[in-house]
Every structure is written in structure tokens, then in C-alpha cells.
Amino acid sequence: MNNNQTVVKIGIADLNIVKAPDVIRTSGLGSCVGVVIYNKNKEIAGMAHVMLPDSSLGKQETLNKHKYADTAIDILVEMLLNNGLRKNQLQAKIAGGAQMFHITTENDMMRIGKRNVEAVLNKLAEHNIPVVSSDVGGNFGRTIEFDPQTGLLKIRTITKGEHVI
Q1: How far is CA 105 from CA 12, 102, 109, 160, in A?
Q2: Average pLDDT, the chain
Q3: Which CATH number fits domain 7-164: 3.30.1330.200, 3.30.70.100, 3.40.50.1000, 3.40.47.10?
């Protein structure tokens, strides 16, 4: 990391955008999904830390729109478009969506990680944003860091070490 580089940290149920040389990072992705939408040529990226798939289940008057796949991705795309990007130039990388606890029921409502991944993929498809790579599922947490200059998403896990997609 060079001295001119800042790491912009994204909290749980949060989102932001970053321009190179800065990088963007989020930690604590268990069943949550980290969504990176970016344009490598313009060296701009946005990241959302999605906690839940569907905002319609939340209390509308106190709704944190950054928490849900269906609303956070809309906001992130809007922020990128407001920074001069065109929708047809955007691509995405996603990570997370783990099944952190052993569940014996067949009830899909309990499989938050899987549902988060599906909701994120559906929303990105709605925006016609291709997912160029992903690292989802499993039963382990992740920390991710994206560099808009290289287009690389670094993924760190306690059990599997570090790799890049």
C-alpha cells in the first residue's frame, strides 16, 4: 500500500464509493454479502455490505436502505452514475453469503446467506450488471478489500487464508 492510498472502511449495512488510488474494505461478512460495483477504466468502485435480502420485511419508517440487497444496490448504482459512470460500463464482484450456523431445518427462510446471494444476483441482473467473479457460500467469514485501480478483490478468511478474484 502506498502513502497516498486511503482505506475506506464500510460497516455492516453500509455502503460508499471510492476512487483510485484509494481502496475500499469491509469486514465481518458471514451471511452478509459484500457487493462491489466498479469501472476499471475510470478507476471508481462502490461497495455495499448487504445484511438482508428484502427491505419489504423491515419497518418502513426506520428503514436503513443500505442494509438490504434490493435497496442498497439501487443506491450504489445511483451514486456511481452520479460520478460520471454509465450503467453499461459497470461490472460486479461479490463475496460472502456463508451459512455460518448449522441448520437442520429445510426452511429456506433460515438460510440467510443463500438468500442474500440470490437477492444480490437478481438485483444486479435487473440493472444488467454482469458479475465477473464471486466467492460465496461456505461456512466461514470473510474480509474483502477492492482496489479500483487493478480491479482486484482481495478476500481474507481465517480458515482459508487470502486469495484474489
Answers
A1: 27, 9, 10, 27
A2: 92
A3: 3.30.1330.200
The four Cα atoms 57, 66, 91, 153 give a dihedral, to 10 degrees, of: -110
Buried-exposed string 58-90: b where 16+ CB fall within 10 A, e elsewhere? eeeeeeeebbbbbbbbbebbebbeeeebeeeeb
Q: What is the pLDDT of residue 104?
A: 64
Catalytic residue status for 32: yes
Which residue is catalytic, options 32, 35, 50, 119? 32
Q: Report pLDDT digits (tens) over 126-146.
A: 999 999 999 999 999 999 999
